[in-house]
C-alpha cells in the first residue's frame, strides 16, 4: 500500500498524488485506501483534498457500510 507509506512519510501530499494517478488510470480504491488519504490530508492541512476524498467515500457507500458494521 503505497498510499499508506506516503501518508506516514515526510511528504504526505504524495499520497494524494498517488491516489490521483490511481483514478486517472482507472484503478478503483478500496476501503483501506481512504483512511490513509485522510491522514495525509490532516498532516498537511489539505482541507480541499479531504473534502474531495469525503465525497468519494460517500459515493462508494463506505459510510453506510461502517455504520452497519460491515467494514
Describe what this molecule looks like in 3D:
With 71 residues, the protein is mainly α. The chain is built from 5 helices and no strands. Helix 2 crosses helix 3 and helix 3 runs antiparallel to helix 4. The radius of gyration is 12 Å and the shape is globular. It comes from Arabidopsis lyrata subsp. lyrata (Lyre-leaved rock-cress). This is Pentatricopeptide repeat-containing protein.
Features:
TPR-like_helical_dom_sf; Pentatricopeptide repeat-containing protein; mainly alpha; globular; 5 helices; single chain; 71 residues
Number of H/I helices: 5
Low-pLDDT runs of 5+ residues are none
Rg (CA only):
12 Å
Mean pLDDT: 77
Number of strands: 0
Which of globular, elongated, flat, extended, rod-shaped describes the shape? globular
Distance between the termini: 18 Å
Kindly name the structural category.
Answer: mainly alpha
Residue share in helix: 55-70%
Q: Sheet bearing the most strands, described?
A: none
Report strand %.
under 5%
Order of helices and strands: HHHHH
How many discrete structural domains? 1
Amino acid at each position: 500500500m503505497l498510499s499508506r507509506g506516503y501518508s506516514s512519510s515526510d511528504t504526505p501530499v504524495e499520497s494524494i498524488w498517488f491516489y490521483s494517478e490511481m483514478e486517472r488510470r482507472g484503478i478503483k480504491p478500496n476501503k483501506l485506501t481512504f483512511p490513509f488519504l485522510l491522514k495525509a490530508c490532516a498532516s498537511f492541512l489539505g482541507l480541499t483534498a479531504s473534502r474531495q476524498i469525503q465525497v468519494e467515500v460517500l459515493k462508494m457507500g463506505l459510510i453506510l457500510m461502517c455504520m452497519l458494521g460491515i467494514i
